[in-house]
Write a structure and sequence with these properties.
The complex is a heterodimer of chains A (222) and B (412). Chain A is built from eight helices and twelve strands. Chain A has 222 residues and is of the alpha+beta class. Chain A has two domains: 5-131, Sandwich (Jelly Rolls); 140-221, Orthogonal Bundle (Arc Repressor Mutant, subunit A), CATH 1.10.10. In chain A, the strands form three sheets. A four-stranded antiparallel sheet of chain A has the order 1-8-3-6. A four-stranded antiparallel sheet of chain A has the order 2-7-4-5, with helices on one face. Chain A has a four-stranded antiparallel sheet with strand order 9-10-12-11. In chain A, helix 5 packs across helix 6. Chain B is mostly helical and 412 residues long. Helix content of chain B is 68%, strand content 2%. Chain B has 18 helices and two strands. A two-stranded antiparallel sheet of chain B has the order 1-2. The chains are: A alpha+beta (222), B mainly alpha (412). The A-B interface holds A 27-28, 30-32, 34-35, 37-41, 56-61, 82, 102-103 and B 84, 87-88, 91-92, 95, 99-100, 103-104, 107, 111, 116-117, 119-121, 124-125, 356, 370-371, 374, 376.
């Protein structure tokens, strides 16, 4: 537990307290941790693995709001305001996480207010991401947003000698970028033509992260 | 700055109220009277009338039915009040062990049953179609009424002296509806027609209460309605559709017990309608010598129950779907062509079934319950789940039923 970023500043005693009030979960891939509108108000901390946070439109179309990995947490909105969940969360790969109930967490932060700062810091970080995404939506084209989504996913991919492997369906990528799956296929093909990625089914192999990051500069031309 | 919308709203209200009052005054000289036309309802054997006039305390059979209905009503209300607990159980225990497509499909079904939003492409498309059908189906009913010399509903034939003008008026409103032109005016004219029906007795107006469902939507539509593809209703419109729809069934249910000969006459002519499992369930434990009387009360109470739950928004989708089944069965199997105007009610019910903007009137209790949960006050939480349902069920059923036993039926 001490390796998880969220708990790193806690003392041994506080870690023991957290261990006593938290529940351990192991989820397989494509498991919904909670749905939008759900009444649960626990806080979840990812021990290892990754999840996507998404919302669905009335007609079932999906928009991935963000992807989170080891050490990060989610569910803080309902934990604080008690409202139903504002988005759904599903695992992208086999994921282990801890959950802490609202009442237990409230009692715990009375003795360790530093943890609340951690929650606030994370909320600010997410607000910054939303600001960036709003900016990208207004001023960047789809190709730029697509490369950004691939770079974000690469943070949770598997590193190998010749690059990083990312497992993501075209639907998930489309839901991150805000376009159709056909457009994703076209963009992946263009990156493949430029020798930046190699795809096989849901497996996307990124040859060099730095080169892909550099590709952002000419993403407008993709 | 704040006065502008209010003035605009008042102008809208004036424009809508004017035609409705005008229509009711203009039509005042015309004549319509309700009598047996399409669905025969002549009583073949007289009912034992004293059954309906004995106080609940001296009528164990009616009391038994009332208790049965109250128990079912309490059960539905309590399950509703427990729905957040059930939702958590469903998501964490039942669906939590599944994952993947099965988990999502299970969640969609649970959302549908508990009136939660269903984010599904098929559901969305059917919902849009249901709104389109609902907004136009009254136009078809009016055309049918005009073609059968009736006013709004085929049961109310027109007086030959004013039949022509009223038939043309109905076709005019139907054209507005079918072409989606000046919908607020069409709504106002419908409200005016409904007010006019009071001339023939409040009973007739209550019978025609369902036309107010779509009238409420029309009056809240934009004046330039022909320019918009209206395929969705907003939350406020949905609230009124649900409330008036529920109120219609609720009132008509009580009226069936009050005017018991009418519904017993229908059963005499169509004995198959007496084989309804829900209605017969309410009559369990009653004296067989009052079989027909108990059936009439159970039938009315079944409508009161479903209407009340719809009116307050408790399991709206389930009850609406059940009523779509009943209405379709009446139209296609029991009564046949004579019940074709029911397509309008079926349209209204389908709008509720496929809406993602359902609300309920018990939400203040739910909010208080959630507050108690977050405080960790379990006693208050469970008290809020049990006490309001029991109080509501008792207050809704017993006083009105007792009142009906003293009601004057001499004018029937």
């Amino acid at each position: 537990m001490a390796r998880v970023a969220f708990f790193q500043k806690l003392t041994q005693h506080e870690l023991a307290q957290i261990a006593a009030i938290s529940k351990h979960h192991k989820f397989s891939r494509d498991h919904v941790v909670f749905f939008e509108g759900s009444r649960s108000d626990s806080l979840y901390v990812i021990v290892n693995g990754s999840v996507k946070i998404y919302r669905k439109a009335q007609d079932g179309r999906q928009k991935i709001l963000c992807v989170l990995g080891s050490g990060e947490f989610f569910g803080e909105f309902s934990l604080i305001d008690g409202q139903p969940r504002s988005a759904s969360v599903a695992t992208l790969q086999p994921t282990e996480m801890l959950s802490i109930d609202h009442l237990d967490f409230r009692r715990f932060i009375m003795s360790s207010p530093d943890v609340l700062w951690k929650v606030l810091e994370a909320m600010c970080e997410r607000l910054r991401i939303v600001n960036d995404e709003n900016f990208d939506l207004a001023f960047r084209n789809m190709a730029f947003r697509f490369v950004c989504a691939l770079l974000k996913l690469s943070e949770y991919g598997t590193a190998s000698i010749d690059g990083v492997n990312v497992i993501a369906s075209k639907q998930d990528l489309a839901a991150m970028v805000g376009c159709g799956a056909e457009r994703v296929s076209g963009l992946l093909q263009k990156l493949e033509d430029r020798n930046l990625v190699r795809t096989r089914g849901n497996n996307i192999h990124i040859r060099d992260i730095d080169v892909l990051r550099k590709a952002l500069e000419f993403a407008e031309d993709l | 700055m704040m006065r502008l919308p209010i003035r605009k709203g008042l102008r809208h209200l004036r424009l809508v109220l004017g035609p409705s009052i005008g229509a009711s005054v203009l039509l005042h000289s015309a004549a319509a009277h309700a009598h047996e036309r399409f669905v025969p309802h002549r009583l073949k054997f007289p009912l034992q009338n004293e059954f309906f006039t004995r106080s609940l305390m001296q009528n164990p059979d009616m009391c038994r039915i009332a208790v049965n209905v109250a128990v079912v009503l309490i059960a539905f209300l309590v399950v509703w009040m427990f729905r957040f607990v059930l939702q958590q159980f469903e998501e964490e225990t039942i669906l939590g062990g599944l994952g993947g497509a099965a988990q999502r499909a299970g969640h969609t079904v649970a959302c549908f049953l508990a009136d939660r939003p269903v984010h599904n492409k098929f559901f969305h498309i059917v919902g849009e179609w249901a709104v389109t059908m609902f907004l136009r189906s009254l136009g078809l009913v009016l055309m049918y009424s005009a073609a059968t010399d009736s006013l709004v509903m085929p049961s109310y034939p027109l007086d030959p002296g004013s039949a022509t003008i009223l038939k043309f008026a109905q076709v005019g409103v139907a054209i507005l509806i079918l072409t989606q032109t000046l919908l607020p005016l069409a709504g106002a004219l419908l409200i005016g027609t409904w007010l006019y029906l009071f001339r023939w007795g409040w009973y007739v107006a209550m019978d025609a209460l369902p036309i107010l469902i779509v009238a409420a939507v029309y009056v809240s539509s934009p004046w330039q309605s022909h320019k918009f593809a209206i395929t969705q209703l907003n939350s406020e419109q949905m609230k009124w559709v649900r409330r008036i729809l529920g109120l219609s069934f609720f009132v008509l249910g009580w009226l069936k017990i009050w005017n018991h000969d009418l519904i017993a006459g229908v059963a005499d002519n169509y004995p198959k309608v007496m084989q309804d499992p829900l209605v017969n369930f309410f009559a369990i434990g009653t004296d067989p010598q009052y079989r027909r009387e108990c059936w009439v009360v159970s039938f009315g109470m079944a409508e009161v129950l479903s209407g009340f739950l719809l009116m307050i928004g408790v399991f709206s989708r389930v009850w609406s779907l059940l009523m779509v089944f009943v209405m379709t069965k009446l139209m296609l199997i029991d009564f046949g062509w004579a019940e074709i105007p029911h397509i309008y009610l079926i349209g209204a019910l389908l709008v509720v079934v496929f809406s993602n903007k359902l609300t309920n009137e018990l939400s203040p209790f739910e909010a208080a319950q959630e507050e108690a949960r977050r405080r960790g006050d379990m006693l208050a939480r469970f008290a809020l789940m049990i006490v309001p349902p029991v109080a509501l069920a008792v207050l809704i059923i017993f006083p009105v039923l007792e009142l009906l036993t003293h009601a004057d039926r001499s004018g029937l």
